Amino acid sequence: MEARLDYFADPTAGKALKYFISAGRALKEAPLPASTQELVSLRVSQINGCAVCVDIHTKEAAAAGETPVRLNLVAAWREATVFTGAERAALELAEEGTRVADSAGGVGDEVWARAAGHYDEEQLAALALLVSFMNTVNRLNIITRQPAGDYEPGQFH
């Protein structure tokens, strides 16, 4: 598979992506646990079918010490016993924040309250921004059919 477009070779896309990538780096520095960030990024990417982001976040999480069992169970987190209450709340928020078209109300109050029971306001802001960021990145990659499989951990750092 070959990408339809090389964003970094295009002057307009390159200029816009410079700012977008810096926003992503700022999120990495947020007080939301790195493992939670990778699990959320992976789950959003699975839902959207973004192969390149699934590749990236699976490999980054593994390189950071995430176990294969947990990575393999992200798609079925509701039935899995390997996630903490906080991680489960973050994954639930990520799913509702990604599937907004499936619910006229968007993220429900109960889902938000469960997340707020585990994360402070700064972490909730980071979580909301991360879900939104990943949905945008997924769409950019899906629209242009960016290929997956060749990512090396740390490649974009």
Automatic annotation (TrEMBL):
Keywords: Oxidoreductase, Peroxidase. Pfam families: CMD. It comes from the Bacteria. Residues 18-96 form the Carboxymuconolactone decarboxylase-like domain. One of its GO terms (molecular function) is peroxiredoxin activity. PANTHER family: 4-CARBOXYMUCONOLACTONE DECARBOXYLASE FAMILY PROTEIN (AFU_ORTHOLOGUE AFUA_6G11590) (PTHR34846), BLL7811 PROTEIN (PTHR34846:SF7). NCBIfam families: ahpD_dom. This is AhpD family alkylhydroperoxidase. It comes from Actinorugispora endophytica.
